[in-house]
Design goal:
Elements lengths: L5 E5 L16 H12 L4 E3 L28 H6 L20 H22 L2 H13 L1 H16 L10 H4 L3 H10 L1 H27 L3 E6 L8 H5 L14 E5 L9 E6 L3 H6 L3 H13 L2 E4 L3 H4 E6 L9 E4 L3 H11 L4 E3 L7 H10 L3 E4 L20 E4 L8 H7 L2 H11 L6 H10 L5 E5 H4 L29 H13 L18
Parallel strand pairs: 1-2, 1-12, 2-3, 3-6, 6-9, 10-11, 11-12
Antiparallel strand pairs: 4-5, 4-7, 7-8
Helix pairs in contact: 3-8, 4-5, 5-8, 11-13
Length: 508
Amino acid sequence: MSFPRAAGILLHPTSLPSLGGIGDFGPAAYAFVDSLASARQSLWQVLPLGPLGYGNSPYSSISAFAGNPLLISLERLADHGWIDAIKLSHLPHHTDRVEYDQVFATKMPILFEAGRHFIQRASNAARGRFECFCKNNAQWLEDFVLFDSLRARHKLASWNQWSPDLARRESPAIDQARNELAEDLNVRRALQFAFYEQWNALRRYASKQRIRLVGDLAIFVNYDSADVWAHAELFRLNDQLEPEVVSGVPPDFFSATGQRWGNPLYRWEVMQQRGYKWWIERLRWATRNCDYIRLDHFRGFDQFWEIPARDSTAINGRWVDGPRDALFQKLAEALGGLPFFAEDLGYITPEVHALRDRLKIPGMAVMQFGFNDEGAHMYLPHRAAGKVIYTGTHDNDTTVGWYTSVDDRVRRNAEAYLGQCPDGIHWAFIRGALSSVAELALIPLQDVLGLGSDARMNTPSREEGNWKWRFSPSQFTDELYAKLAGLVEVTDRLPQQIPVLPDENFAA
């Protein structure tokens, strides 16, 4: 599909200056929406919102459907009677970095206490909404809460290390677990209810200010996830329920040994036999909760890099055909359209471009990649027709950090294209993106703030120190709002009227 010409900001909610050591869907999120509106932005792009798995990466989640409970606002829970506000008085009001171990240790007990309180004392109206949520989402919710509870019981051990009857989901063992964990399961259902109530309340607030929410969907899911445990037949597992092959990408400019992501690969032939039901449910849920969706690693739908599970790097992988048009035809029929754009970066074959073009799904252009050599010019603003353009993404260094680290030749290329930059290279990039022929222009907040490498969100292949950056509310100033608003106006990216989501009398 084509998108109306628009501009927006890339910021994951964990980076918001919220209470409790991590960003969430509370007052800081609403203040950020107000900031976007003041800057005349039309889009807020987030990273995947699922519960965190290995390395605290939003792209490494234990569920393709569930929400990350750490993003639940304790303040909003207190406002809705889930917990006494006095319980929040000892939590830090702002930290410069997200320290995940500390956040898990301090925030999760309060969330569970709030969930128990809700189950015991919710009003009839709130309980009705909760029961409706559970009924409407049972196809993923019941597997997830049982998986999550069993994972906690087993001290976060991977599900293949549980007893064989639980790992293989034998009915007597599953029934016994549901009975033994019934109270805990209900609390976990309540937290998922709270997550989606708060997310949709925030979406409604944004829609009133003409701001659409852009989601992000990782193509693969974790091995240690509710999805693989509940649907092992859909994944390339051996008789011991261990991955035969895993995902990744071959060596490229990010890594000389490639990237071994380690996710199990799909049995696409089984998914096709089942009418791609699991994918339809996944994308239906995603499009119900976001306005547009970025499809991460779009190349994997044409061909994916298959790595032997025993290998420690991605060097010895091979390209294997993906589902291609067949999957997207089923998705279009089920969803009534394809409100997606594709992450099609790196070494992309003509076949991948042809698939994307047939589906009428825009690709991506990242300006930082456009100055290395002549072949990279496809990432520059004048070549971005029918694409979504970024100055950089969560996987890039900030533009200021990038500019200080590249060699003189690349800097000269950037200066030749962008001209003099008296207000900083980041503003030259922002002007280039907003004035481009791309339909959507998305700028990481770090580039708006002109921050250096210390503010980088993620370094691919680095196992530690990622996903921690947070900004201070004093950094996004009225002066920056006005500067962005002026650029949006002169580049014809002003917000347009959009449907306001219905007021559902949110209970959390």
